[in-house]
Each structure stands twice: as C-alpha cells, then as structure tokens.
Specification:
single chain, alpha/beta, Arc Repressor Mutant, subunit A, D-Maltodextrin-Binding Protein, domain 2, two-stranded antiparallel ribbon, 10 helices, 25% strand
Length: 295
C-alpha cells in the first residue's frame, strides 16, 4: 500500500467511477485500475463493487475510506507545513465558505487580500457545511467559514461576528412598516426557504419553532437570489441575513426581534498554522469589525 494507491482509491470513492476518477487524477483509466487492483490484492479484499453504472464501496472499502482520508490529510498538512517554513506569506491557501456568506462578506473585499499578499495562491470554494468539514479533514481545505456553533471533534472554531436576521417582505405587505417583528407575526405566511443541507435553513426553522411551528414551505432553492426575486414579486416571505440586505432589491426588510446568527471560521486542531493562513484569519477579523463590511 502506498500513497498513490490511497489517492486513487479516494478519487474513485468520491467520483463513484473509475473513468471520472482517472480524469480527475490526470492518468489513464488502465493505470488507475491497475493500482486499485494492486491495493485490493495487498489487502486481500475487494474495495469496490462494480455496478452497471459506476461503482460503490464494499464494507472493507468503507472502513479504508476513513483511514485514507486521515492519512492523505496528514500528508497534505505536512507538505504545507514544510512549504510554509521555507517561504514568506506565500503558497497555496484553500478557503471554503457557506453560500450564505461568500457572496456578501468575502466576494466584495477578497481582491483587497490578494493585493496585500500577492504571493498567496488563494483558492475559494463555496459549499454547504458538511462538505466543507469533509474538506478540512482530507486536507483539501485549510479554513472554512461557517455558521456557529459547530461541534466537530478535532476542529477549532473562532467567532467572527454576530449578524441580525431580517424578515424579507413584499412591498405593500401589512407588516412592512413595522420597526421590528415578532416571529409569531409571520406564522400564517407563505415561506420561501433554502433547501435542506444549508445551515441557514436550520437557523430559520429553529427561529420559527421557538415561536410557533415549522413554516409551510412554498418554495425551496439553493440561493438567496431566487428567494429575493420571488419575495419582491409577492410570492411569499423569507428570512435573510443582514449582509444580504444590499442585494434584496424590491423587498422590504424588517429586523426580527431577538434573531441573529453567528459566523466564524473553523480549522483543524494543529500546532503549526502556516503564515498565509494566519494572515487570512487576521484579515477576516478586519472584515468583521463594525462598519468594515460593505453596506
């Protein structure tokens, strides 16, 4: 068993296809398949079940997957540590962020970081929290910007900001002139929500459950842009974070009493933090200061 075999194994497990995995790894399919066969032979068990369309992990393959992620994650961390020791604030830095943060907090200001640290090869990834955590554990990500609290073993989290939540209402809605809304005032409304898997959806549902019950969902999507357009058209109501307010054209936004979310970053619990990662987290904290983020 060697690192190349483990990397190919992990690629096939993710892609659920030998051909797609070979393409992602930049090798021919016969080369990748041969390495997987050698790995299975050395372990004495089949790792994949070949199906008509793709493959799936066998029980031994499922067990190996967790170990392969840890091993490759440690190797990736070791490489970045050595690289950081011999360089200035430079090198690869992969940062993930949830979709309800990246367009509003990072995107308007990220060029500022790139100008300040031109030798940092910054890569941004937008995804839901579960996949960002998986990326931290495999070493594909160095940092993840997520909604807190986040209780995951082996991760260190730090809060950046607390942000008010706003009710998004159509123009002319009877509640649009209120200075502040009690969540119970929205209990009979038609709701527009993010799909399951988004942490912001969980926060909205938790807010509703504290005041009444689960809202009747009329529409679900993966992006605020669709929700904003439908609210503006009078199709329903929703809840938005304050940082998305500038994009909510055509909507009336009213603060929701006692409602806020916590945004922070997560990283693996490691003794050494590369200089580029330290610089990025310091820069993040400047964005979180009152009045620092774009209106």
């Amino acid at each position: 068993m060697d690192l190349r075999q483990l990397r190919y194994f992990l690629a096939v497990a993710r892609a659920r296809s030998f051909s797609r995995a070979a393409e992602q790894e930049g090798v021919s399919q016969p080369t990748l398949s041969e390495q997987i066969r050698k790995l299975e032979h050395s372990l004495g068990v089949p790792l994949f079940e070949r199906l008509a369309r793709g493959v799936r992990l066998t029980p031994p393959g499922e067990r190996l997957l967790a170990h392969a992620q840890v091993v490759l994650g440690e190797v990736a961390a070791a490489r970045r540590t050595i690289e950081a020791l011999r360089t200035r604030i430079a090198g690869r830095l992969a940062v993930g962020a949830i979709p309800t943060v990246l367009p509003y907090l990072l995107a308007p200001r990220v060029e500022e970081f790139r100008r300040r640290y031109p030798e940092v090869e910054l890569r941004l990834i937008e995804d839901i929290t579960a996949r960002l955590i998986a990326g931290l554990r495999t070493g594909d990500l160095d940092l993840a910007i997520v909604s807190l609290p986040l209780r995951e073993p082996g991760l260190i989290c730090a809060e950046l900001l607390r942000e008010p939540l706003l009710a998004a209402l159509p123009a002319g809605h009877p509640l649009a002139a209120e200075r502040e809304l009690d969540p119970r005032a929205l209990r009979r409304e038609r709701w527009l929500l993010l799909r399951d898997g988004h942490c912001f959806r969980k926060e909205v549902l938790a807010l509703c459950r504290r005041s009444f019950r689960d809202p009747a969902s009329l529409f679900e999507t993966d992006q605020f842009a669709s929700i904003i357009a439908l609210v503006a058209a009078g199709f329903g109501v929703s809840i938005l974070p304050a940082m998305a307010a500038a994009q909510a054209r055509g909507c009336c936004l009213v603060p929701v009493r006692g409602a806020q979310r916590r945004i922070g970053y997560a990283r693996l619990d490691r003794a050494f933090i590369p200089p580029a990662q330290q610089a990025f987290t310091a820069w993040l904290k400047t964005l979180a200061r009152p009045g620092a983020a774009p209106p």
